[in-house]
Amino acid sequence: MEEKTVFKSILENAGDPKRLDENISLFTTLSKHEKITLLNALAQSNEEKTVRLINLIYDLEEDKDILKHIRKVLYILKTKGIRVEEPPKKGPPAINLKKKDAKEDKKVRSYITNFDYFNEMFVLIAIEFKKKNFLVINGEIALPEGLKELTLNPISDDEFNNIIESIKFEKTDKLVLAEAPVSFSYHILKEGSNISKKYPKELNALKKTLKEHSSAFREGFNLYELTVPEDIYASDIDEILSHQFFEFFRFRWDGFEEDKKKYMDLKNPAIFVPQYIIEEKKTVFIDSLASKENINILIPHLKTVLEAYAYIFYAHKKYAFYKGLIDSLKRDEALRNVILYLIKNELEYEEEKSAFNENNMVINPFEFMKPYE
Predict the structure, then answer these.
(1) Residue 321: pLDDT band by 50, 70, 90 thresholds?
(2) Quick one: average pLDDT of 132-144?
(3) Confidence check: pLDDT of 265 > 80
(4) Which of 221, 250, 281 is the last residue of a domain?
(5) CA distance linking residue 37 with residue 206, whole number of Å
(6) Is the N end or the C end of the chain the one with fewer CB atoms within 10 Å?
């Protein structure tokens, strides 16, 4: 969401009691300079309802300069004849003093899904911004588009638990949900944003918030060194990509339709050509596609998506699939073989093989909520 849109949303709904949590959540995403600018705008209000919003912001704010500015704004409103209950000045607690640079950890949860019928996956990150209330960031990711949409919704703890349970209830053997380390979930969102060029500012704000309030985020996460039982042998790439978790995964790229037409012309020539020559031409064509710029540009995003699948396999205790996929992701040559496999699989794909079924899509729990853009 652009700064002007954030300002407009908060200013227009500053007096709406039903939008208080949303306005507070939006305020937390702003930089220090932006917060001061917005507070100056709120100082122009003539409504008593605005005071309630400002006081709630004051309760959650930690920056001394912002707190000082809030008191200044409240004084301005008071001089206009608006009834103001000035908040007490915040000071250090009498006991249990923390180090000046210490940050309080907040409860953070995150989840990822695999790709559904519409070739979309979802990433959820929930940050507790006050007791039993979460700020939920929901990212919708697709191939080749990357991060398509980012929504931000303040909801209660119970509501969030209900959302997770509803997704679990709707899932099938082909559609799965996995609770994931928050740093990994953020990484998936960031890579998706790098492709779509959308929401970079919002993700930078999210990163700052997570660094301040999540020790797990600060510690990071290494997907490639997860412990697996010693007797587990890695599955081969054919077996992995044929797994039902990949049932709806589609690797598309810009110019795909034209490339598929060329491929089908090679596969079904107008004149007789020996089959071994056809196979040779198909192999050369697929290899040339793997070197095209419009596919190469997707490789970092594709690798991140495959890492997400590796973690999902691990979370569901399918260790052989996790190990096999990780082994392929570690080596450039093996990763290229995965890409060649996906390209060929997509070129050979027949639409009628997978008819639409509403049970083959992840239910987006926020689809009726206001998009954060």
Answers:
(1) very high
(2) 87
(3) yes
(4) 221
(5) 20
(6) C
Domain boundary among 221, 248, 283: 221
Of 60-74, 111-125, 192-206, least confident by mean pLDDT is: 60-74
pLDDT at 212 over 70: yes
Is 227 a member of any domain?
no
Q: What are the structure tokens assigned to 355, written together?
A: 């008819």
Angle between the 20-28 and 3-12 helix axes, to the nearest 10 degrees?
150
Smallest CA-to-CA distance from 294 within 339, 261, 326 is with 339
Distance (Å, rounded) from C-alpha 293 to C-alpha 276? 29
Residue 99 lies in a domain: no
Going through the chain in order, the beta strands assigned E by DSSP cover: 108-113, 120-130, 133-142, 146-156, 177-179
3-state secondary structure of 122: strand
11-29 mean pLDDT: 70
Same domain, 215 and 241: no
Helices 3-12 and 32-42, packing angle to 10 deg: 30
Counting the structural domains of the chain, the total is 3
In a domain, 203, yes or no: yes
What is the domain extent for residue 331? 237-358
pTM summary value:
0.69
Question: Is 103 part of any domain?
Answer: no
Torsion from C-alpha of 181, 187, 192, 193, nearest 10 degrees: 120
pLDDT over threshold 50, residue 1: no
Provide the b/e sequence for 138-165 (b: ≥16 CB within 10 Å): bbbbbbbbbbebbbbbbbeeeebeebbe
Q: Which two tokens stand for residue 160?
A: 């969030």
Q: Domain check: are 148 and 187 in the same one?
A: yes
3-state helix, strand, coil in the chain (%, to 5): 55, 10, 35
In the beta sheet, which residues pair with residue 152?
A: 137
Amino acid at 343: I
Q: Average of pLDDT values for 26-54? A: 79
Residues 206, 277: one domain? no
At residue 100 the predicted structure's pLDDT band, cuts being 50, 70 and 90, is: very low
